[in-house]
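Chain A, query sequence.
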Amino acid sequence: MKENIKNKILETGAEIIHLKGFNHTGIQEILNAANVPKGSFYHYFKNKEDFGLQVIDYFNEYFSLSCKDILEDAAQPPLEKISQILQRFIEFFRSKDCAYGCPIGNLSQEMGDLSPPFQAKLKEAMDSMVDMYAGIIREGQKSGGISPLLDAGKAAEFLVSSWEGALLHMKIEKSLGPLENHQRFIFEYILKP
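Chain A, predicted structure.
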């Protein structure tokens, strides 16, 4: 039961923070939306910063779980896995009318240079995304679908950085065009055999 209350606070807070940002989200707003008494917050979290760090873990786990079925599908070639992951998130942003953006990217812009604990936790989350893509790229290199001359780690870092930039453009243009452009360039120029 206690873990359910903590999860409810985290899920509710994560959704509000994803849309409004960390500094524009108040503890009372989260508790009201979660329908949880104020004392519950301080039972599970030391303060708002501790909560924010756990929200980053929540987002990181959500991303991993969102991709798990694709990553574990041995029947899909590596390039198809990357395509499916990108398409899944493009569909998510279509359903959100090109709002929200990447929660880790949003928090990195908002908090990355303001709080050393946030910076470290956000770097860990970004590194996790890069590692996931690097693993898929290496898999593609072994099977011959991706050039063995490509540095998998650097390519994965570029893929994540390019995606984050495309999300910024998506939000201000209110269009999926930047995400689709990112996807096209990745496959036509970066991840060629």
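The mean pLDDT is 94. The chain has two domains: 1-45, 48-190.
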